[in-house]
Write the structure tokens for this entry.
Amino acid sequence: MNLNNEKGIDPTVEAIVEMLPENFLRNTARESVLIIRERKIDPVILFWVLTLGFGTTFTSAMDAIQMSNERG
């Protein structure tokens, strides 16, 4: 993994954060009626957890789920 020496952030993640700023994510969540009022779940945190949580293990996890469903 090639990390930025100053911040310790992966350049790919840094580019994604620049493309999708926090204000854009919050406004889009309001416009799409994902949130009406912010309470316990922050839409920005939810977005990044879902986005970055599907890493390299995502495809193997989906394969395992498919195999378990096929077995019955």
